[in-house]
Amino acid sequence: MVFTKDGDEWICTIEIPGGLAAYGFRRGEVGCRFKQVGPGRYEGEILWRDRAGNASWKHTVATVTGDTYEDTTGHDECTRYWRRLHGEFVTAELVGFWTGDWGDMVLREVGDEVWGAYRHDDGTVVLRWDADDVLRGWWSEAPSRNPDQDAGEVEFRFARDGDAIVLDGRWRYGTSGAWREDWDLRRSPQAPPADLESRFAHPELFKRRP
User: Fold this and answer.
1) Residue 68: exposed, middle, or buried by beta-carbon count in 10 A (0-12, 13-18, 19+)?
2) Are the C-beta atoms of 96 and 77 separated by less than 8 Å?
3) End residue of a domain, out of 28, 61, 86
4) Where is the domain boundary, 52, 86, 120?
5) CA atoms lying within 13 Å on the CB side of residue 65
6) Phi and psi at residue 133, in whole multiples of 5°?
7) pLDDT tens digit string along 98-130?
8) What phi and psi, each to the nearest 5 degrees, are found at residue 201?
């Protein structure tokens, strides 16, 4: 296999199928894609085929130490979250600690959802990637966590501002209120606050759209 650089993404193409031909791989086919997420560490997806030639993409993490390359491939299908590699961002850039409107917020991947815990009124969000690469979902807050006063729809778009990653969000009360464009945050390099992290131990606080 041959690795080539395409912007900030590494693309692996299959040049000599060898035994891989039995699985339907073809010369020149893209076999994996990676983005660097740390020193010597890469995260992405790898093409997987069974003996019938059926293809799927799997999440994979690779490490490079000197001339040694090693990867670990999960057997889970790539979700929309991992498939974001084909967009501008990789998973490691999106989860973590954010600061901005409505207080600090921590984002985590939970299955094929993205959960968030934020400061204002012990708030939480439950999100999923939509077909247009926007995170859409539901916010809820104390005391009731019920619409229309303490819960509603929310959506976030991610962008770059120089070297920083920013989150452009909007929200509304319930499902029919006017959209409010005042939920913007910026990725922070600091460690997430312990009190926000501890909220993830209480999944009952993370409400989905009813």
Assistant:
1) exposed
2) no
3) 86
4) 86
5) 3
6) 65, 35
7) 999 888 999 998 877 889 999 999 999 999 877
8) -75, 0
DSSP tag of 26: -
- pLDDT tens digits for range 20-62: 555 555 666 667 778 887 787 887 777 776 656 566 677 777 7
Decide: 189 and 99 in contact? Cβ < 8 Å. no
**Best CA proximity match to 90, nearest among 162, 34, 168, 10:** 34
Q: Which residues contact 75 (CB under 8 A, 6 or more apart)?
A: 58
Of 147, 118, 142, give the one whose Cα is nearest residue 208.
147
Name the pTM for this structure.
Answer: 0.61
Whether residue 139 is found in the same domain as residue 81:
no
Q: Say if residue 68 is in the same domain as residue 134.
A: no
- Contact 114/127 with Cβ under 8 angstroms? yes
If asked whether residues 105 and 82 sit together in one domain, one would say no
Q: Which residues pair with 167 in a beta bridge?
A: 158, 185
